[in-house]
Amino acid sequence: MTSAKVEEGQEEPQAAAAADTTSAEGYQRALGARQIQMIAIGGAIGTGLFLGAGKAISKAGPSLVLAYAIAGLVIFFIMRALGELLMYRPVSGSFSEYAREFIGPFAGFVTGWTYWLFWVVTGITEVTAAAQYMTFWFDIPQWVSALIFTIILYGVNLISVKVFGELEFWFSMVKVTAIVGMILICAGILTLGFSDAGDSASVTHLWADGGFFPHGISGTLMTLQIVMFAFLAVELVGVTAGESKDPKSVLPKAINTVPWRIAVFYVGALVMILSVVPWTEFQPGVSPFVAAFQKMGLGLGAGIVNFVVLTAALSSCNSGMYSTGRMLRDLALNGQGPKTFTRLTRSGTPLVGTTVSAALMLVGVWINYQWPGDAFTYVVSFATISGMWAWIMILISQIRYRRLADRGVLPQSGFRAPGAPYTSVFALAFIGMVIVMMGIDKDARISLYCAPLWALILGVSYVVLKARNPGNKAFAGR
Asked: Could you tell me the pTM of the whole model?
């Protein structure tokens, strides 16, 4: 505040009000409790569930339900670890900032850029899925739909964070309403026997058609990378910390919704669908939700569900546009990225970072043009390995933070993760097992081949930036 404003007196309340609505990073605190809650709920309901589950069902059968339940428990451990860190210091950079503080500057650098890559690749994945869903109604090339969707969502993200939050709220509302409705319809078929599937619908389908593990436990384990991909984006709520109106009140409530939304939207929905339609009738590359309604003879229902899964894909892509710009700006503010990424529009959105990210997401258009049938499979493994890196950094940072907080070096968080550090160690071991499974799976192995190349690029870039900025604290040791 300038001396002139102090003298005027009447300007002081306005300045105070501005401070309340602007975060330390310069963002507008425009996301309310209603929007944060729906972002948290909708973050885990996307392409991984609506489209990827089709391939997973064909590999694991009914045991996929167990895979989702166990993986969901691990996700809860990860989110509570993130919640503990967020209540210690809620910042927009989130896990990149925590990795920088508790592991080292290089870890923060790698985490920020890798999470950015994750969302760029995820954006490609989601726009690919959205393009596939459009073929349900229209006979148009996938790349055309992918191009149109990318341009529209880019424009939405440049308006303001409030518009983004409102759009995500309604996207999530559509997804939640649809899944709950689907569960109720399936329950009605099981109890009342209506529709074409009424005579054959039975919970015995969960174990009668080849058993609960029709392809053995190994078949279930091989689906873990698809299962974990479905949960990617639950950590997005951490990125919203710098733009939440009341992060210390809203974020813990959002994180604590993780167990019931996994129980309802993943475990509950799959149990119902697999009870109404035998798992043997689902095919890879086809949404099990759309296929279920078609098997029931509810053609209109299949069209509605296809609209819902299209909404889910666009919602996730929208989130990708949001997070990539913020992550690039955080890196730039810490001297670990080009300064041009620090620029904000008048409405508080990172212009350059969002634009660059959206431009790279257009690679998805080319992928859809070249390989329209295999595009989704190609990009899922890339997204999974890069997204899981953020989870690894969250867990290690939480373990180190808890150690320092227990020694009195740092203040205790008001939202301590239950069972930590043991739950965090268990989650790290589970992620390690998933990575091993990805190495065994020939379709997912390509991501592990690319990881060393990405690490080399980041290593060289870090050395160059550190040499050019010898006095920058972002490159100093812990």
From this structure: 0.85
